[in-house]
Amino acid sequence: MSPSIRPLVAGNWKMNGLSADLEELKAMATGFEEACGGAVDGLICTPATLIERAARTVEGQGLSVGGEDCHAKESGAHTGDVSAEMIADCGASHIIVGHSERRTDHGESSQTVAEKAKAVWRGGLVAIICVGETEAQRKAGETLEVLDEQIAGSVPGNATADNMVVAYEPVWAIGTGLTPTVDDVAEAHAHIRARLVERLGEHGEAVRILYGGSVKPSNAAELMAVDNVNGALIGGASLKAQDFLGIAATYRG
Ligand SMILES: O=C[C@H](O)COP(=O)(O)O
């Protein structure tokens, strides 16, 4: 664990969640501080349809709310899209950009991701920029090269430790129950840290690097203890308060 960087435990609900699920969010918000002993920041990113109500649900509690994606433009003729400003207007603090599901489902390039990160900052929010290799790339021994390309292309040069979080999510570990070994996580996170320091100097040393991919209460302690792992980006296990709080509890002293 990196003692000088306050960890972030973040959930990504993806295309899940109706208003009834706000009860689950309420349980997460009321239980978060006690679960982690106040040791970490907590965030739940919801579909755009829920952000405003989610923000009201968690108000005054230990959790923040974020969006899962945004358009790069502030407004205009972009049917079906939402801007960072709109998400900020709903009460969000963060927006995920460059999730592998966006890169795959919507053909988003690293250049698009960088434009979206800048849009997040224009809206006054923190960008969570996702990177990670596919199974084929890992098998071909290309993981570190892929991370280099994605960081160079997706992380704008004016990123800081305050306006950006990086999430390392091996694509093959997302929603599969598979996770890399702790040595592989350590190697990837150390590599990302080195690239961020090269690119951003002291900000690179302080940027939070989250691990994402099949994190659950039973494996969180091991994964969160790896050097340069400054928290988690959690998909499936962020939908249930018991699981999400179980992961946050990893950080309880
Ligand atoms: O953004 C979250 C990740 O894609 C991880 O999803 P997962 O925890 O369901 O594997």
From TrEMBL:
Involved in the gluconeogenesis. Catalyzes stereospecifically the conversion of dihydroxyacetone phosphate (DHAP) to D-glyceraldehyde-3-phosphate (G3P). The active site is at H99, E169. This is Triosephosphate isomerase. Signal peptide: none annotated. It is an enzyme of class 5 (isomerase). Its EC number is 5.3.1.1. Homodimer. GO terms for molecular function: triose-phosphate isomerase activity. InterPro entries: Aldolase_TIM, TIM_sf, TrioseP_Isoase_bac/euk, Triosephosphate_isomerase, Triosephosphate_isomerase_AS. It comes from the Bacteria. The lineage of its organism: Bacteria, Pseudomonadati, Pseudomonadota, Alphaproteobacteria, Hyphomicrobiales. NCBIfam families: tim. It is found in: Cytoplasm. One of its GO terms (biological process) is glycolytic process. PROSITE patterns: TIM_1 (PS00171), TIM_2 (PS51440). Belongs to the triosephosphate isomerase family. Its main location: cytoplasm. CDD domains: TIM (cd00311). The gene is tpiA. It holds the Pfam family TIM. It catalyses: D-glyceraldehyde 3-phosphate = dihydroxyacetone phosphate; L-erythrulose 1-phosphate = D-erythrulose 4-phosphate. Substrate binds at N12, W13, K14, G175, S214, G235, G236. Gene3D superfamilies: Aldolase class I (3.20.20.70). Keywords: Cytoplasm, Gluconeogenesis, Glycolysis, Isomerase. One of its GO terms (cellular component) is cytosol.
